[in-house]
Amino acid sequence: MRNIRQPSVGIVFALMLMCLAPMAAARSFLSTIGDVPLAEGLQELPDAGFVFDKPQGRIVQLTASHETGVTQQAIRAFYQNSLPNLGWQPRESGPALLTFSRRGEILRLTFTADLVIFDLTPMVAP
């Protein structure tokens, strides 16, 4: 019986490591959206954002710049892999946009040539 349990514990541990691996590449989290990691190669621009709390929820915009040599594809892949592990459900996406939702909020990542703009807004009721 003991031999049967050891492989299952090992499998569970391996699966946990695989789920957390994308977040290991993050150096830190966004300053105002503390549960969204800052991908390696991004630097948050402290003066290029705002935070507004209202009764319907928070509105936050943060901007981060790419370091030289960091590709937009690598950053997109990081967020596509890590945010679902943090409870963010993928929604629409396009060549310059990733959108996720979680607990009544929408998180949009807009990609430009050298910036990523993070917009967090309350989900609008239909």
Descriptive tags:
alpha+beta, 9 strands, 126 residues, 7-stranded antiparallel beta sheet
Distance N to C terminus: 53 Å
Counting DSSP H or I runs of 4 or more residues, the number of helices is 2
Radius of gyration: 17 Å
Overall 3D shape: globular
Classify the secondary structure makeup into a structural class: alpha+beta
Order of helices and strands: HEEEEEHEEEE
Biggest sheet overview:
7 strands, antiparallel
Q: In terms of per-residue confidence, which ranges show pLDDT below 50 for 5 or more consecutive residues?
A: 9-26
Q: Helicity range of the residues? A: 25-40%
Q: Which strand-content bin applies to the residues? A: 35-45%
Instruction: Give a count of the beta strands, DSSP E runs of length 2 or more.
Output: 9
Q: Give the count of structural domains.
A: 1
Average of per-residue pLDDT values: 82
What does this structure look like?
This protein is α+β, with helices and mostly antiparallel strands and 126 residues long. The protein has one domain. It has helices spanning 2-24, 72-82, and strands at residues 28-29, 37-38, 42-44, 50-54, 57-66, 89-94, 97-102, 105-111, 115-122.
